[in-house]
Design a protein that fits this description.
By secondary structure, this protein is mainly alpha-helical. The chain has a single domain (about 25-110), classed as Cytochrome c-like domain (Cytochrome Bc1 Complex, Chain D, domain 2). The protein contains 5 helices and no strands. The protein is globular, with a radius of gyration of 19 Å.
Length: about 110
């Protein structure tokens, strides 16, 4: 089958558009966990709500040794001063294993 330059250009343009629109797959289980623990009342994946977006958190702590444990601690025990004057209250409904799952997921977002 012979392809014309226009057909090839259209194919490449479509592929480029899909690649641009593609976002990292959100792990459904972790998103459901975040929803069930009311994390999304103050955070969103890609925009600031009360607290920073999860993508901003991932960017701030990318590549840092111990980031999962540090974020898990902030999720369970709360935090203040890292993102401004509004403190993050402790989430007493999250156990250590859940906090580490959430922290790992957040850090995976780009």
């Amino acid at each position: 089958m012979k392809r014309t330059p226009l057909a090839l250009a259209t194919t490449f343009a479509a592929a480029a558009t899909l690649a641009t629109l593609a976002t990292p797959a959100v792990a459904a289980d972790e998103l459901a966990l975040a929803q069930s623990k009311n994390c999304l009342a103050c955070h969103a994946i890609d925009k600031k709500v009360v607290g920073p977006s999860y993508k901003d958190v991932a960017a701030k702590f990318a590549g840092q040794s111990g980031a999962v444990d540090m974020l898990a601690g902030k999720i369970m025990h709360g935090s203040s001063g890292t993102w401004g004057a509004v403190p993050m209250p402790p989430n007493t409904n999250v156990n250590e294993a859940e906090a580490k799952r959430l922290a790992t997921w957040i850090l995976s977002l780009k």
